[in-house]
Amino acid sequence: MIDLILKASLLLFMVAIALSLVRVIKGPSLPDRAIALDTIGVNLISAIAIISIVLKTKAFLEAILILGILAFIGTIAFSKYIERGVIVERKSAD
Predict the structure, then answer these.
(1) Would you state the pLDDT for residue 45?
(2) By the 8 A CB rule, do 73 and 66 touch?
């Protein structure tokens, strides 16, 4: 029974990722696309965790951690780009 629930939730996470991908492609504004990318990252982390549970292995835990860090850094960089237009500010020595 739990195996069926895990597979159904994995299917629903894949549908959510597909819908978020549509929002990234067709998003009306740049902040909508940034939020959709963050949503894809969170749903992907959850899907990998469910796959790890179904396969009864701990091999994917490092991938989950790295993906979470990269999604966080990507969201911060993208929001900084939206706010200022640049990601890395270079200060000139005057």
Answers:
(1) 96
(2) no
